[in-house]
Design brief:
Elements (H helix, E strand, L loop, with lengths): L2 E10 L5 H18 L2 E7 L2 E9 H12 L4 E11 L11 E4 L5 H12 L11 H17 L8
Parallel strand pairs: 2-5
Antiparallel strand pairs: 1-3, 1-4, 2-3
The chain binds flavin-adenine dinucleotide.
The site of flavin-adenine dinucleotide has 19 residues, from helix 1, strand 3 and helix 2.
Length: 150
């Protein structure tokens, strides 16, 4: 398998609600499990940041399907590259809503990587995105927030 990683950001549609996030998670978990894709999806300040990793063709097909989804717009490809190992191999897809985590800790991490109080992944470098997602995953695992876990 040619192991590959895609990272992108996008803007959520203005009135996105919790049920729509759950629908996204449900389809993601099911499809990604079948396709051997793992990764992480962060949602905050009306923006998404997602990392997808797995077989190059499967990741590419999945990204193009996601990019057409009307629940978000303006997808920006931040990174597409071959990788030697996965970062999030235990998660077919885990969605983390920033407002579900400790506000002060989230604010500090957002400020560190976004350079502003608002979560703006489209202004982050690929390396910053990876570091941000790893810190969020750690924070999520330490919290009791399982609202979007299916
Ligand atoms: P379906 O059975 O077609 O749909 C499942 C449910 O989702 C439906 O009940 C419907 O209510 C809803 N839905 C589906 N498509 C849309 C749409 N375009 N607009 C509004 N509602 C819709 N999919 C993945 O497979 N893997 C991912 O990692 C992934 N990440 C995503 C990240 C974001 C930010 C967004 C917005 C979507 C993501 N999706 C992901 C969903 C993807 O865009 C497709 O909707 C999904 O893959 C279709 O899968 P399906 O045919 O099995 O689902």
């Amino acid at each position: 398998m040619n192991l590959y990683r895609v990272i992108y950001s996008s803007y959520a549609k203005p009135d996105l609600d919790i049920q729509e996030l759950k629908d996204i998670m449900e389809a993601s978990t099911k499809n990604n499990k079948e396709d051997g894709i793992t990764g992480l999806l962060c949602y905050g300040d009306s923006m998404f940041l997602q990392l997808l990793e797995g077989d190059q063709e499967k990741v590419s097909t999945t990204y193009h399907r996601i990019a057409r989804d009307e629940r978000h717009h303006g997808p920006l490809l931040i990174e597409c590259q071959s990788i030697s190992k996965r970062l999030f191999e235990v998660w077919s897809m885990q969605a983390i809503q920033l407002t579900d985590l400790n506000r002060e800790q989230v604010n500090n991490i957002v400020l560190k990587y976004s350079g502003s109080a608002l979560f703006r992944p489209n202004s982050m470098t690929p390396l910053q995105c990876v570091s941000f997602l790893k810190e969020m995953a750690t924070l999520f695992q330490l919290s009791d927030s399982v609202i979007l876990e299916l």
